Amino acid sequence: MTTSVTTNDVHALTPRQIVEALDTYIVGQAKAKRAVAIALRNRYRRSRVREDLREEITPKNILMIGPTGVGKTEIARRLAGLVGAPFVKVEATKYTEVGYVGRDVESMVRDLVEAAVRMVTEERRTEVAELAEQHAIERLIDHLHPETAARQAPGNNPFAATFGSIFGNNAPQQQQPPSAPPSDAQRIREQTRNEIERGFYDVRLIEIDVEEAASIPIGMIGGMDQGGMGGADLGEMLGGLLPKKHNKKRVTVAEARRVFAQEEAQKLIDMDAVKREALRRAGEHGIIFIDEIDKVAGREGGRGGPDVSREGVQRDILPIVEGSTVNTKYGAIKTDHVLFIAAGAFHMSKPSDLIPELQGRFPIRVELDSLTAADFRTILTQPKNALIEQYKALLQTENVTLTFTDDAIDQLATFAMQVNDQSENIGARRLHTVLERLLEEISYAAPETTGPFTIDAAYVRERLADVVTNSDLSGYIL
Fold first, then answer.
1. Max CA-CA distance within the chain?
2. Minimum mean pLDDT among 10-19, 118-127, 312-321: which range?
3. Measured distance CA(198)–CA(188) in Å, rounded
4. Which part of the chain is CATH 1.10.8.60?
5. Using CA atoms, how far apart are residues 327 and 322, in angstroms rounded to an integer?
6. How far is C-alpha 2 from the geometric centre of its chain's CA atoms?
7. pTM score, two decimals?
8. CATH topology for 10-114+277-367?
9. Could you tell me the fold of the domain covering 373-466?
10. pLDDT tens per residue across span 121-150
């Protein structure tokens, strides 16, 4: 297979490098890979043009046409992962025209923003992980040796004046343990810090206060859609103003260290900056993959029945794809520069059955090829996540060492192709069912039966030939 990408700037990947990176996971489909590679590179090119022209350049959305199991979703998902772009996959069939029960199409954009917030939050948490770990260890030392903890000056309590006026300057004070001399405290803390880092205290049980954000069961401001959020969460907003709830838990020092590190990391993250960056990243680099677009491609020839809202769904999707502003609980986002990739088998309809306005918003059309027996053989052996390597790794954990001969792999590919031809063509997903059937006995016997096991063509035929040749039986089993 091709080598992995070597450039440090993932946003400056050339189309050729993008295709090479996709080749490590996805077999064939060169036309689709080239189309998405060019679309991704155009984002980088757009970022370098002059500012007055930059806003006028919009993404060229892509329509993938091909049967199930040939790699449509995987291409889009791997593309987003390659450059760290926010990505969501949605099914066109779960949306309905406004006025019917179902999800509002704008919820796909809100899902994209949620994905971007999670992505940026995780990045920020990684950046502050080292400092958060240091703070967590200091808190642990305070628990293990409270006499060495720094004392808070009375004047630093923001509620002291209030409580003083209420209780007549006799506000209740929490009893503090006696302080150790500064030199001894420093020595004890340093020694305890080293012992914590070495894991000396990991199994000791301590009682800690775990923070839990206060929540209020209040609905949404601005309404809500079916399964999506249309406005700001009032409970979330008010919950941030209320004091934190503290629950006492008895945990090991190792678990307390993990809990404290998470809490400290959350304190170090500027969530306002995270939301701003997430909105920017979703709007500039987000990718929305709309699957099963062919299922809403039928025109409304008449009224009634399950097809009544198909064209309505298309008309609701249209402004999102054209470019509009969608309100989310993190702020408004413009979809003008979000890349939309739609996909469908189109075996019962054709792209021209979409409304003309929506067709025009997907100017790039790529047709994905059905997989052959040679493609199946490649999928089984060569990609980075090759199926045979996955099964080998799974059974190796049970001390079962699998070896597949070349003729066994050829026979597997032939059988998978044969079943696809005589029943529904589900593409590469057929390999999962074939391999599960093939390895059923070995997986069941492990770990009682361990050691090396060689799978050759004879074993493949023994396990699968009767099922594959019987089309009625294979329709149920494979």
1. 91
2. 10-19
3. 15
4. 373-466
5. 16
6. 26
7. 0.75
8. Rossmann fold (3.40.50)
9. Helicase, Ruva Protein; domain 3 (1.10.8)
10. 999 999 999 999 999 888 888 888 888 777
